[in-house]
């Protein structure tokens, strides 16, 4: 069925479930069962001469990510707050971060009692580098918690130039960019430390979970002690040598946020399939994007040639619509079986919110971001959808755009 057909004629409703994930591989099911049979659920519940499943996962993920050190955590949000503590953020310190992101990012800043300073977004849904340069100059030496929101990568060469010029410590939030690259370098390998999520809707699935990766041995040691290693840091799979911990082990508090062996068993069995699944997501993303592109009324973000994102979701804007028109767009798509999230909604809905609803962050004037979010929509792309399913969803979105008038 061609895109033109769908734009010109009534379109058939879609019946897929946007919340349905693929089942875990049987190897994961068996590995979890084996852990449960053993009773050794805690990562340090092991003999001194053996590596736990969590430690094995850390070694495997560090290798995949091309990073020297890796810490497996209870969540991506915990990884971010731990990274902030590990790089030395203190109460009332300024942490720069994206205005367009999800609540766990400013939440991580709030959890260490720091002050979030929000940076504008641009039409390609990445941090606005002009605004970043201005705020970096105002807060030289600060930390930048950089959210690669929804998988979109800024020009990382220019961003790191700004960061270096103003002595910013860069913490990358890679919850949506596991496997994405900029100019051939994996996201997470630009800044001082990176944080990943393995929550259900991310690229590998343990329900909740995350990773912290870095090439800085002292930063890695601080993070490991912060995670609640007690004095068992030598039992980690991708940790610095024991001597690095000598000046750190009694200085950092225990903020328990370790990953357990059950979740690690799930993830270790999924890791061999990750590269294949990343390609599958991008096939589905391209099919949906191509179908949506049939509408000249919809604005899609335009990545740089150097950027390779992972298309586990798709974002688009409807610049001709006001608030009522956007609400109508959501309703019409829902009537045809397509579930959209609208970032312009003044009330937080499910996972979606905007900076004005984060009352724990000082209010910011962000006209550029507000204009972009006012007509910004998001659609999830689960691997349970076929390529044809994704084209169908894109055709529905394009068809609704052709039918609805601005108000």
Architecture overview:
Helices cover 37% and strands 13% of the residues. The chain is an alpha/beta fold and 407 residues long. It folds into two domains: 3-23 and 274-403, Aspartate Aminotransferase, domain 1, CATH 3.90.1150.10; 26-273, 3-Layer(aba) Sandwich (Aspartate Aminotransferase, domain 2), CATH 3.40.640. It has a seven-stranded mixed beta sheet with strand order 1-9-8-5-4-2-3, sandwiched between helices. It is globular, with a radius of gyration of 22 Å. The model is unreliable at 1-6 (pLDDT under 50).
| Spatial ordering of strands, largest sheet | 1-9-8-5-4-2-3
Structural class: alpha/beta
Question: Which H/E pattern describes the elements?
Answer: HHHEHEHEHEHEEEEEHHHHEEHEHEH
Outline: globular
- Helix tally equals 14
Distance between the termini: 31 Å
**Rg measurement, Å:** 22 Å
- What is the domain tally? 2
Instruction: Give the second-level CATH assignment, the architecture of the largest domain.
Output: 3-Layer(aba) Sandwich
Name the helicity range. Answer: 25-40%
The CATH superfamily of the largest domain bears the name Type I PLP-dependent aspartate aminotransferase-like (Major domain)
Briefly note the CATH topology name of the largest domain: Aspartate Aminotransferase, domain 2
Q: Any idea of the CATH class of the largest domain?
A: Alpha Beta
Low-pLDDT runs: 1-6
Give a count of the beta strands, DSSP E runs of length 2 or more: 13
Largest sheet: 7 strands, mixed
Average pLDDT works out at 94
Share of residues in strands: 5-15%
């Amino acid at each position: 069925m061609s895109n033109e057909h769908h734009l010109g004629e009534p379109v058939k409703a879609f019946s897929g479930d946007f919340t349905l994930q693929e089942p875990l591989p049987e190897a994961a099911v068996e590995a979890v069962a084996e852990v449960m049979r053993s009773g050794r659920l805690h990562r340090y519940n092991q003999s001194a001469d053996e590596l736990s499943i969590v430690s094995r996962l850390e070694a495997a993920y560090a290798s995949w990510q091309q990073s020297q050190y890796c810490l497996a955590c209870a969540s991506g949000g915990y990884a971010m707050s731990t990274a902030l503590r590990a790089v030395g953020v203190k109460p009332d310190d300024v942490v720069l971060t994206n205005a367009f992101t999800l609540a766990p990012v400013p939440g991580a800043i709030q959890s260490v009692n720091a002050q979030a300073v929000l940076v504008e977004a641009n039409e390609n849904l990445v941090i606005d580098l002009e605004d970043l340069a201005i705020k970096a100059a105002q807060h030289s030496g600060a930390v930048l918690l950089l959210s690669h929101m929804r998988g979109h990568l800024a020009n990382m060469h220019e961003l790191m130039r700004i960061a270096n010029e103003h002595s910013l410590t860069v913490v990358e939030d890679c919850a949506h960019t596991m496997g994405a690259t900029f100019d051939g370098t994996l996201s997470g390998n630009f800044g001082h430390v990176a944080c990943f999520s393995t929550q259900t809707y991310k690229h590998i699935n343990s329900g909740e979970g995350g990773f912290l990766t870095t090439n800085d041995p002292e930063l890695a040691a601080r993070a490991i002690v912060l995670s609640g290693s007690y004095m068992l840091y030598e039992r980690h799979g991708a940790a610095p040598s024991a001597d690095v911990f000598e000046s750190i082990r009694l200085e950092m508090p225990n903020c328990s946020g370790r990953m357990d062996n059950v979740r690690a068993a799930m993830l270790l069995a999924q890791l061999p399939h990750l590269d294949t699944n990343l390609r599958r997501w991008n096939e589905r993303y391209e099919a949906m994007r191509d179908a949506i592109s049939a509408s000249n009324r919809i604005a899609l973000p335009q990545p740089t040639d150097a950027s390779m994102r992972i298309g586990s979701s798709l974002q688009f804007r409807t610049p001709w619509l006001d608030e009522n028109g956007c609400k109508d767009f959501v309703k019409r798509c829902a009537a045809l079986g397509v579930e959209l999230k609208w970032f312009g909604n003044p009330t937080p809905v499910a996972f979606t919110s905007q900076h004005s609803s984060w009352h724990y962050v000082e209010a910011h004037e962000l006209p550029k971001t507000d204009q972009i979010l006012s007509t910004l929509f998001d659609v999830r792309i689960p691997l349970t959808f076929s390529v044809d399913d994704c084209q169908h969803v894109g055709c529905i979105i394009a068809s609704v755009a052709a039918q609805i008038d601005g108000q």
